[in-house]
Amino acid sequence: MKRGELPYARQGDTFLIEVKLNGLQQLYNTLDPAPSREKEIDRHVDTYIVESVREIPPGAPIKLVLHFPPATEGAAPDTIAESIHNHFAYRAHGALLELRQTLRNGRISLVIGVVFLFVCLTLRTLVRAKGGGTLAGILEEGLLIMGWVAMWRPIQIFLYDWWPIQRSRRILERLVAIPVELRFGGPAPVRPGP
Q1: Are 137 and 125 in contact (CB under 8 A)?
Q2: Which of 37, 45, 73 is nearest to 188 (CA)?
Q3: Which tens digits make up the pLDDT trace of 127-153?
Q4: Domain boundaries, the chain
Q5: Nearest Cα to 123, choosing from 98, 150, 102, 101?
Q6: What pLDDT, on a 0 to 100 scale, did the predictor assign at position 23?
Q7: What is the pLDDT of residue 70?
Q8: Could you give the 3-state DSSP secondary structure of residue 184?
Q9: Which CA distances in Å does 80 have to 29, 109, 181?
């Protein structure tokens, strides 16, 4: 493999995310009692698929290939593809809700921070007007620092906290419509988790 080349097989321009499973039960979370179309995907399989898509360039076509042993019982391609799409749609919706909540918290934090900063700067002006001295200087600087420290959280949210959630949401949305192919028998290069 050449430097900078991704370790994924390709069909033309399409990157293949290949997952080898011992059976249909390995695809799903065994604790989830929902019918197969609504079942949650096993966390090892989920993590492998998401991390693989994260490595592939955003505009590149992708396809999920699930390798099963020959004669896997109950493997209905349409049902499996639908359950995978449903799983990632649910996760993408959760990421959207998390993004909205983060931005809402940022707006609330910004209002609180601006009000607190205004109060601190007003008090600082009053302390400065009352007179000088070492204690007054310390109090003035303390009020200035406290006011700007109150702005730390909204600045962190709007500069740093929202974009990793948005990036994850885009990856999950990409997986909502990923083409799924089932292959029975034959070797596959990858197997997720224990």
Answers
A1: no
A2: 45
A3: 988 877 888 889 999 999 999 999 999
A4: 10-94+175-184, 96-168
A5: 150
A6: 82
A7: 80
A8: strand
A9: 13, 43, 9
